[in-house]
Write a structure and sequence with these properties.
This protein is mainly alpha-helical. It contains six helices and two strands; from the N terminus they run ααααββαα. β1 and β2 form a beta hairpin. α3 crosses α4.
């Protein structure tokens, strides 16, 4: 692949990622979850499976611990997450989603399905699944993070 083709691929992937991020965020807000930004969604993606410490969240988002702590303060204040004692480290706090945070995550899943529907209609289900599978081969483990 020549440099210009590689750049074209890079631009297309970044454009799709940016559009998808915005569509999911817009869908979440439209479902009644006010006051959220895409950065919150990236944090929820790390917190949702079983909680995370501020340090883990900072590493996931590619930000400082101070920036992650501010984001956690914000989502706790808005009722999407709470701090709990860490089961394996008495010095640390585990950030977990509240029921509202889990509802918001489900809303994001619905918004994601809605956002990719036009793409599936354009290229077909088989090609969309093949695209997903190829992208997962390239980046199988994430992390899913914003491109600051």
């Amino acid at each position: 692949m020549q440099n210009s083709e590689a750049m074209g691929l890079s631009v297309a992937l970044l454009a799709v990622a940016g559009e998808l991020t915005q569509r999911i965020n817009d869908g979440v807000v439209a479902r009644g979850f006010e006051g959220l930004r895409p950065a919150h969604g990236f944090a929820f993606a790390r917190i949702a499976p079983g909680g995370a410490t501020v340090t883990e969240l900072a590493a996931h988002l590619g930000v400082t611990k101070q920036a992650a702590s501010q984001l956690v303060d914000e989502i706790v204040r808005k009722g999407y997450a709470e701090r709990r004692p860490h089961p394996g480290d008495a010095r640390a706090r585990l950030i977990v989603l509240t029921e509202r945070g889990r509802e918001c995550t489900r809303a994001a899943e619905e918004a994601a399905a809605e956002a990719v529907r036009p793409w599936v209609e354009l290229i077909g289900e088989d090609e969309a699944r093949a695209l997903r599978d190829r992208l997962l081969r390239i980046a199988p483990y994430g992390p899913i993070r914003p491109a600051w």
